[in-house]
Design brief:
This protein is mostly helical. It has one domain: Alpha Horseshoe (Serine Threonine Protein Phosphatase 5, Tetratricopeptide repeat), CATH 1.25.40. Helices cover 71% and strands 0% of the residues. The radius of gyration is 16 Å and the shape is globular. Bound molecules: adenosine-5'-diphosphate and magnesium ion (MG). The site of magnesium ion has 6 residues, from loops. Magnesium ion binds next to loops.
Length: 204
């Protein structure tokens, strides 16, 4: 339980920090192919989780993930809130009901599929899924954390070559090509920060 507390607290702080540091950039990306609020939305969500960090870090990891997901749904808003929320809520639920045989990569995979169903989107649509799926592939391969982080960054950059098929950016059609997707970018920032944190993390 103490291990969960340190881990949850560390991850909450890490995620909040990286989003705060890049919020302006995420808004800039969203101004190009959306409505310019993605950084503000993500910051609001991460701040709400941070405010609640003492309570959240007192919970077992599965329960904390679910609660964090709910907080993200309620506070990020926009299209991305329910999607990030679904990811964490599903991870928490699956982890809670499979605590005895934890295959974390499989749990993450099922949670990503739930995000895809929620957004009626798939890989290649120029969304955060274009980072989540490649990251998941590396997890299944049991790649090193630095490799997973590199994949996240590269995958976000690759969205620049895609035509948006979902969300506001899809209204632009071909004019969405040439711009990195803001949701893919926030996802890569979070994945990278989490990988770096976990690389240094030593359970008590
Ligand atoms: P909004 O578009 O409502 O302003 P945000 O700006 O916070 O919401 O988030 C935009 C991001 O959400 C996009 O860059 C994309 O990655 C993601 N997104 C939007 N719609 C979908 C969808 N249907 N499926 C998956 N991801 C989506
Ligand atoms: Mg937006």
């Amino acid at each position: 339980m103490q291990t969960d507390r340190t881990l949850i607290l560390g991850l909450i702080e890490t995620c909040r920090e990286v989003i705060a540091a890049h919020a302006d950039h995420l808004c800039e990306l969203d101004r190009a192919i959306g409505d310019g609020d993605h950084g503000t939305n993500m910051r609001r969500g991460c701040d709400a989780v941070y405010v609640d960090r003492d309570r959240l870090s007192g919970m077992p990891l599965a329960q904390a993930l679910e609660k964090i997901g709910l907080t993200l749904v309620m506070n990020i808003g926009g299209a991305s809130g329910p999607l990030y929320g679904t990811l964490l809520i599903e991870m928490g639920r699956k982890l809670g009901s499979n605590a005895h045989k934890t295959n974390f990569a499989a749990i993450v995979g099922e949670a990503i599929d739930a995000v895809a169903r929620r957004g009626r989107s798939q890989e290649g649509d120029k969304t955060l899924l274009d980072v989540l799926y490649p990251v998941h592939t590396e997890m299944v391969r049991q790649s090193a954390l630095v490799r997973i982080a590199d994949t996240a960054k590269e995958s976000a950059q690759l969205t620049a070559g895609m035509r948006a098929m979902r969300g506001r950016a899809s209204f632009l059609g071909d004019r969405s090509i040439g711009h990195v997707d803001p949701g893919a970018s926030s996802c890569a920032l979070l994945a990278t920060a989490i990988c770096h944190y976990l690389k240094e993390y030593r359970p008590a």
